[in-house]
Amino acid sequence: MIYLDSALVSEAKTVENWGWVKGITTNPTLLAKSDLPPETALKQLAAISPGELYYQLMATDFQGMVTEGRKAFDIIGDKTVLKVPATAVGFQVVAHLSPEIPCSVTAIYSAAQAAVATEAGAKYAIAYVNRATRLLGDGLALVQEMATILKDSSTEILAASLKSPAEAAGALIAGADHLTLPLEMLDAMTTHNLSEQTIDEFAQKGRGLV
Ligand code: E4P
């Protein structure tokens, strides 16, 4: 699946019209860019999103995270996927909440964390591809290692922090199951200058029903 990485209602409406984007991922930074209070933004996004809507937990203690996760589920409903940070307490929260609310583990930077994510019951393991390339050297190698570790598990890899169409395609080739990208990047994935050129050629030389 390909998701929109945004908390802006206008962008959610745009991809709803496109018809091929399957859901929306948000994070605290993206929610801060909205003019709406988080609760209102999430309600509106949930109404528009064609599928899953990811909400990232901000609390940092176990009880606070569990309470926040349940609150997000009350607001978003059945489309909820919680994004739980890859920390010791985060994995504990995933193990606790997964039976009642689908959870993803976010900000994964090592294959070992992916191994724990699946043991804890996460539906998705989120790899921060471009950040991993910048900070560790090779984000696509991280995706490859995660894919090897998760190949017989029910945990799927969502590649995030992607900065170009080539990197997005590379993540899928490396074994990611899903992608999330900002609106401009999704748009960029649809075009190629040679496609335009080829289509122009047909338009000039060919004929059809119109
Ligand atoms: C994913 O779910 C995150 O919201 C996002 O892709 C993080 O990307 P960034 O590196 O651009 O912050």
Automatic annotation (TrEMBL):
The keyword Transferase applies. Its EC number is 2.2.1.2. Signal peptide: none annotated. The keyword Transferase applies. Gene3D superfamilies: Aldolase class I (3.20.20.70). One of its GO terms (biological process) is carbohydrate metabolic process. Keywords: Schiff base, Transferase. One of its GO terms (molecular function) is transaldolase activity. This is Transaldolase superfamily. InterPro entries: Aldolase_TIM (IPR013785), TAL/FSA (IPR001585), Transaldolase_AS (IPR018225).
